[in-house]
Design brief:
This protein has helices spanning 37-49, 68-71, 83-92, 110-123, 152-170, 228-237, 248-264, 286-298, 302-312, 338-350, 355-361, 375-387, 403-418, 431-435; strands at residues 9-14, 54-57, 98-104, 128-133, 178-181, 186-188, 198-199, 204-205, 220-224, 240-243, 273-282, 371-373, 393-398. By secondary structure, it is α/β, with parallel strands linked by helices. The protein folds into two domains: 9-286 and 367-435, TIM Barrel (Alpha-Beta Barrel), CATH 3.20.20; 301-362, no CATH class. α3 packs parallel to α4 (110-123) and α6 (228-237) crosses α7. The longest helix has 19 residues, at 152-170. The protein is globular, with a radius of gyration of 22 Å. Bound molecules: flavin mononucleotide. Flavin mononucleotide binds next to β10.
Length: 447
């Protein structure tokens, strides 16, 4: 019998009003999305109707840094729900779609983290995931009693230890520890509870955790970070990696590199899924999609545009730069940091651009190559990357919400299904089952 055709995984990447910086001005976005629970529940139900694997909530434990007058025109990261709280509400109105919340290893305690994600996994019957971030936004430190952010190396070293501790806490009880036998009066088997007794370079946690082992064993572990330490961390701990690349060749390199790193750490390459972000503007016709995109671009105030570019270049001051002229030569970055390198790459690939043209390239999910087109064109691009060795699936980044996700579900999902490269029914109950990932055994299982 022929093998079942390989199918892509899909996550919906959610910023409250959408990914385009001017999304909140669109007539089909919800303006007060950042405090509107009904909005999130509606979006979750839309994603489930489209048989999405996951909803992914980006987050930061701080507002965006920068010029407040410009930020007042750009709501991203300025007014957000705490992700696990709102995901609990979304879990209550859905049955299949999974939920990934972003949470920082730099500004949390592992015991809290284990309880929060363990709870979400129980509440959702095995549909929770944790996007492990180390937090790039340096101003977060000042919300947590520190004058300075951790160094890059320290952040990643702490993250590695942190995730191991959290997994250790989830393993507190064996899977069969709870008997709840009313005859004998024994609630749980006291030989099946384990104390972690962890003392490491950064963390000290005794345990045990006051919670049954999560339905998935461990909630799904997601990582996003493409520096060397970021890739190594992903290769060791992640079930899924989010990347943001504009070109298939770069994506293929990272895909291969992360899978090879995983093998070096003794893991199977099939156990780590690589998911590039895809900014999508889909309409019934190409003309309509282009019109929508052009309208959104026209709604970017130049102050927001300058702020957007400034954030790409370690917040250098661009407030006096003329947006109708190219960026002055002395302000062009050298490409040493991940962020600056995107500007260098853009100019290398596209030659001379005005400042306005530059910021328009970063206006949706920091993506210089959004897919703007009809359902066939969107499906073509996804299929090309999926079958071209660049992706196991995608995180779809709709320009505006809820309208953009509704359009994707109505227009693109049926086309992917028709091509046999996306599911028509969920395969299992938990997120791991739907993603074809194994349920991790407890560290105490063999003893
Ligand atoms: C698709 C995607 C989504 C991300 N979402 C978040 C997020 O919600 N919060 C956050 O602090 N960082 C987020 N990041 C940033 C990464 O976690 C990481 O800090 C960044 O890529 C820099 O890491 P690096 O130095 O290892 O490259 C995201 C990155 C990508 C590619």
């Amino acid at each position: 019998m022929a093998d079942k055709k390989r199918q892509m995984k899909l996550a919906a990447h959610i910023h409250p009003t959408g990914h385009h910086v001017a999304a909140w001005r669109h007539p089909r976005s919800r303006k007060d999305a950042g405090r509107n629970a009904r909005h999130y529940m509606d979006v979750a139900q839309t994603a489930e109707r489209g048989k999405f694997d996951l909803m992914f909530l980006a987050d930061s434990p701080a507002t965006r840094n920068g010029n407040l007058k410009s930020l007042a025109r750009w709501p991203q990261y300025m007014a957000y729900f705490e992700p696990l709280t709102i995901l609990s509400a979304m879990a209550a109105v859905t049955e299949h779609v999974g939920f990934v919340a972003t949470a920082s290893t730099s500004y949390m305690e592992p015991y809290n983290m284990a309880r929060l994600f363990g709870s979400l996994d129980h509440i959702s019957n095995g549909r929770a995931g944790w996007n492990v971030v180390t937090t790039g936004n340096a101003s977060a430190s000042m919300n947590y009693g520190r004058e300075e952010h951790y160094s890059h190396a320290e952040r990643y070293a702490r993250a590695k230890e942190f995730v191991e501790v959290v997994k250790g806490l989830w393993d507190t009880y064996d899977d069969d520890a709870f008997i709840r036998d009313t005859e004998t009066g024994i609630y749980f088997d006291h030989t099946k509870i384990h104390h972690l007794h962890h003392k490491g370079d950064y963390l000290s946690v005794r345990g045990p955790l006051n919670m049954e082992r999560p339905p998935q064993g461990y909630p799904l572990i997601v990582q996003a970070g493409t520096s060397g330490p970021g890739r190594d961390l992903a290769a060791q701990i992640a079930d899924m990696v989010f990347i943001q690349e504009q070109h298939l060749d770069r994506c293929q390199q990272i895909y291969k590199d992360i899978k090879e790193r995983a093998q070096k750490f003794g893991r199977s390459p099939d156990e780590i899924l690589i998911m590039p972000g895809m900014a999508v503007q889909v309409s019934r016709t190409e003309e309509e999609a282009k019109r929508e995109q052009a309208w959104l671009q026209s709604q970017i105030h130049p102050d927001v545009g300058r702020e957007l570019l400034s954030a790409e270049m370690n917040y250098i001051d661009l407030s006096d730069v003329d947006v109708e002229k190219p960026l002055p030569a002395h302000l062009i970055p050298t490409g040493e940091s991940t962020a600056g390198s995107r500007i260098v790459d853009l100019l290398k690939r596209e030659g001379s651009l005005t400042v306005r043209q530059m910021y328009e390239r970063f206006s949706g999910a920091r993506s210089s190559h959004p897919i703007v087109g009809d359902p066939i064109q969107v499906a073509d691009r996804l299929q090309e990357w999926f079958e071209g060795g660049g992706a196991d699936g995608f995180i779809i980044q709709p320009s505006f919400l809820p309208g953009g996700l509704e359009d994707f579900v109505e227009l693109v999902i049926p086309e992917l299904q028709r091509r046999g490269i996306f599911r028509t029914e969920y395969e299992g109950t938990t997120s791991r089952e739907n993603l074809g990932l194994p349920r991790p055994k407890s560290r105490y299982a063999s003893s």
